[in-house]
Design goal:
This protein has about 475 residues and is an alpha+beta fold. It is built from ten helices and four strands. The chain has a four-stranded antiparallel beta sheet with strand order 1-2-3-4, with no helix packed on it. α5 runs antiparallel to α6 (about 215-250), α5 runs antiparallel to α8 (about 285-305) and α9 (about 350-415) packs antiparallel against α10.
Length: about 475
């Protein structure tokens, strides 16, 4: 008995000694290189607009209703949620990997014995067995703990992917929502222009009757009217298509979309993009890439442990009898325990190949992380410059509109009282004014879209 106790203590001591050997490596994390990540931008503010809840950023109530509906009904999100459930299940299973396996076995075996087996005395036998079998693999080299960490990283990846889809979905809905309002405004501009052009036609007919202009001016004014009229169906078609896109994004059949009337009513908070390092805290695709590297790092640890001995303890206990009435007698009880150590010696290079593949996949994940960080910096830089240029265009556009309104007014007056002016001058000034009015709507839309792009590029906000 004492000998068995000493053997047990010696075995435990050896296991503790072996487990102290560092086979797997500790994960240190990845850092973002902040040098010049955002072009021509010096940042000292540690806050970021990405920390805002999306409702604090998009304040339009109709838009908020669309986003709320989409977050509950969008099919892409539902698919991602099922992936999260799968990853959660895999992680729960990995947490149990370090526990012993326990199985129960109940069997009744009827045998017809050959003459040598029964010594010529027994032709048939029935054996009754009931046993509990257990096995346990101690996590000596850290294989099981690394596999668990890899499963956790995979779970967090799916959650980050879900947030990335949410961020993309919110940005898409906002994009099409503001585009829809801009199309409404452009349609109103065209309708008002049609009314003005009809007045022009009547004016040209009156001036022709007074012999101030000729028939060509009347025909040109009518053509000018029809040019605007023919643009209206295209805008109506785009409005209908945009409504259908929004309906699809919120998981509803195509239909009318409730929205605000004026795009310049949309208000956004002050732009605060935060330090480049905040991308790792807020951008879900950067987080997903970092977690993919973490998973590949831990899987490389698992591959590294395959070169070391695998220790397993197995045991069984139960009852076995050839007579049903004596099945559970003390004499039928059996028990055994076995400790086994398996050291790979030659397996045709399988373990070495697996390690090299795992290391290569880890390096690929690192490059992918770097690529996404650079892409993030590009998107922030592009959005900042788009916002800057759209504001500059808005200032110039206001001056242009004032000048063109006066140009239309002056050329119409000159047409009545000056022979040096013809309807071509009026037509040119009116067309320039129409283009500028439509461009003004686009300028306001560009500001909204630049803010959406910036919000998404910095992380897409909280949910």
């Amino acid at each position: 008995m004492k000998r068995n106790v000493k053997f047990t203590y010696l075995t435990l001591f050896i296991l503790l000694l072996v487990s102290s050997c560092q086979v797997t490596k500790d994960y240190q994390g990845l850092q973002i290189n902040q040098n010049n990540l955002f072009r021509d931008t010096v940042i000292s503010d540690t806050n970021s607009m990405a920390a805002l809840h999306w409702k604090a950023f998009f304040k339009d109530k109709s838009l908020q209703g669309l986003i709320d509906t989409a977050l509950g009904s969008n099919l892409d999100l539902k698919i991602l949620l099922e992936r999260v459930v799968q990853a959660q299940t895999a992680f729960k299973q990995s947490k149990l990997a370090s526990l012993p396996d326990l199985n129960a076995d109940l069997s009744i075996r009827q045998s017809r014995l050959a003459f040598p087996q029964g010594f010529g005395l027994i032709k048939n036998s029935t054996q009754y067995d009931l046993a509990l079998q257990a096995s346990w693999e101690p996590d000596i080299w850290g294989k099981l703990s690394s596999a668990k960490k890899a499963s956790l990283a995979q779970l967090l990846q799916t959650e980050a992917a879900k947030r990335a889809v949410q961020s993309q979905l919110i940005a898409e809905i906002a994009f099409h929502y503001y585009s829809l309002i801009a199309l409404d405004e452009q349609l109103e501009v065209l309708k008002k222009t049609v009314i003005n052009r009809k007045d022009d036609v009547n004016t040209m007919k009156t001036l022709k009757a007074s012999a101030i202009v000729n028939g060509a001016a009347v025909v040109q004014s009518e053509a000018n009217l029809h040019t605007v009229e023919v643009s209206i169906p295209d805008v109506v078609k785009r409005i209908r298509e945009t409504e259908n896109i929004l309906s699809f994004l919120i998981g509803k059949p195509a239909g009318f979309i409730q929205r605000s009337k004026h795009i310049n009513d949309q208000a956004f908070d002050q732009v605060v993009i935060g330090l480049p390092a905040s991308l790792l805290r807020f951008r879900p695709d950067v987080q997903e890439a970092e977690l993919a590297f973490r998973q590949s790092f831990e899987l490389t640890n698992v591959a590294r442990t395959a070169f070391y001995p695998n220790f397993r303890i197995t045991g069984a206990a139960g009852f076995s009898s050839l007579d049903f009435s004596n099945w559970f007698n003390p004499e039928s009880f059996f028990a055994n325990i076995l400790g086994g150590l398996t050291q790979p010696i030659f397996n045709k290079g399988v373990n070495k190949a697996k390690l090299q593949i795992a290391e290569s996949q880890q390096q690929q994940a690192f490059y992918q992380f770097q690529k996404i960080v650079l892409q993030s910096g590009k998107e922030v830089s592009d959005a900042l410059f788009a916002l800057e240029t759209s504001k500059a265009k808005e200032l110039s556009r206001g001056k242009q509109l004032d000048a063109l309104h006066k140009a239309v007014e002056f050329t119409k007056e000159l047409l009545k009282y000056s022979e040096s002016t013809n309807y071509i001058d009026v037509l040119t000034s009116e067309q320039n004014l129409l283009n500028a009015e439509l461009g003004s709507v686009n300028d306001q839309l560009e500001q909204c879209l630049a803010m959406i792009a910036l919000y998404k590029a910095t992380g897409g906000g909280s949910y």
